[in-house]
Amino acid sequence: MSDNAGSRPVIFLVARREILIRLRSRVFRLGTVAMVALIVVGIGAATLLLGKTTPVRVGFESATQTLEQAFRASATASGAEVTVSDVTDDTSGRAQVTAGTLDVLVTGSPTDPGVVVKTTVPALVATALNGAVVDARLIAAGLQPAAVATAIGGAHFQVEALQPANPQRTPQAISALVVGIALYVALGLYGTFVAQGVVEEKATRIIEILLATVPPSRLLAGKIIGIGLVGLLQLSIIAAVALVLVSVTNVVSIPTFTFISILGYLMWFTLGFLLYATAYAAVASTVSRSEEVQGATAPIQVFLIVGYVAVYVSIGNLSGPLATVLSLLPPFAPTLMSVRMAGSDVPAWQVGLAVGLILVSIGGLIRLAGRIYSNSVLRLGAPVRLRDALSGK
Amino acid sequence: MVSVKRALEIDGISKRYGDVVALDGMSLEVPAGEVFGFVGRNGSGKTTTMRIVLGVLAADEGEVSFDETPLTAEARRQIGYMPEERGLYPKMRLAEQLAYLGELHGMGPAPARAAARTWLERFGLVDRAQDDVQSLSMGNQQRVQLAAALVFDPIMLVLDEPFSSLDPVAVDVMSAVLRERADAGLPVIFSSHELELVERICDRVAIVNRGKVVAHGSVAELRTGAAQRRLVDVPNAAARWGEGIPGTTLVSRNGSGLLFEIAPGADDQALLQAALATGPVREFHRVEPSLGDIFRTVLQEDAS
User: Which CATH superfamily is domain B8-217 in?
Assistant: First the structure.
């Protein structure tokens, strides 16, 4: 027909519809706004908590003022930010601490001073003060502090930690965990969107009109591509906001959130989405009502959850055998490999192997899912058994 | 519009689901420019036949051709189809949805939008073009459904129960559109249980039973093959008069009016004489069997 001029490929048309409808939906807009707000609040809170750099105000009363110079030097050396002031007497110093205009009051004799604070002495201030008092005592004993320092310097020893501090606490591990959670949520969410989309077309019966003109495989491909692109867009918006905020506030200066590493996480989302969305679509096509989607997709959800739990279990040892093996297996690679890349150094061959394995699995699954989908999608009513869907009975 | 006679030919298609035979050598021809009615009980194979024509299902045997060539996927894209189970995206705007379906059937974006608008105007829905389908009344949703089958200027219409649950106004719209499309040179085939409607608007009819055509032709042609009927009004006849008159069967009795079926080859004058013997005869005339009567007779014959 003459109207054919300029007609577009079916996959493009189907994908475009999915994108338009979803970008316009309240779920997408509110969801994006909510997640961006969460990130702004989270990074804002982290800036306030971690980035508190107000100097500690230390006042020295009469006799202890001889410690000031040594204290200042010692504090600078250990990285503690302090301001030093003279206090005329013990009583006025205590009044200043109570009033909150002074954080620490040093009083008494230089070799055996007392310290007055509201609650606790900041650790770095205590260390610096300790150094100043030791110097004062050495001088009182007729020794040169510099000479003593030279004498005891160079006494190196090797540290062997039998119970190292929990690496889960490090900012890098926390960011890796955030990456894992984000991927788990995104894969589950967008996979479910695909499942619901497939069932929606069955439940509203439009599927028969569509299949009269579109081959099932292209309908499925268009749907998965469209929803995947929407997911990618939403994650990119969120990642971009996080990237900008982190670089502005400078709250986390670790390699987890560089531009390149974020591209890596988006790649893993794409691969994971292709795998999971295909599986979700196949099982969803066997049921006819939206209430049945949850039950039908539960077995796939299990894989996603196992990968999620494995992230928590292995976060302390991201190069250990559990994390290494699971991060190579296609169902768990998207979350675990991303977390490993975020939280540790992963050998390139392992990343390459994981990508290769998941690509092969996606290829196989698409074929299988296409068959299940084609054989099930027109059958309304009772759920189609997977065996029947595969054999086409 | 193309004026060449392009007929839809269904040639001996069969379809089995396990042990269930859905179609058993179904054959029929729908010439271009004809409205063709497809009647039969539920489960007789109407929907399966239509799905096979559309390529939604594959036949085990047999062939469907159009314009004397087997239907290709590309040709099937040009068929206007309305499935028995109606379906549209409830949360998609009317104009967008129709344009989308137009593009899926191979139109370019601009012609698809223009065609969507044309059909919305035709059905008086142009004010609702930006509304979601789910906000429309049932009657209007059915109009959109019909527009969905027409928007891409199809080469043929295949409609499964297009009249079911339509309000009387929508029935008129639907009948007019089917006739108009047939006049434009398309083969139009539809199934229906509303036999009076089929009788009124179809050029030809096929009666199907158990997966194959058991009778087909124009309603007039089908009538000539059907048994002759006579209505006799005999007010003074005895209560049990009418039974056992040679060459006739009493079909029904309504007060003094009796309906007889004349056995093939029998003479209706014997019946008239028997009637006159009872006293005055107020009425004696031929009754044309309705499509419903023909349908029941054909199915009875097929069963025996």
Answer: P-loop containing nucleotide triphosphate hydrolases (3.40.50.300)
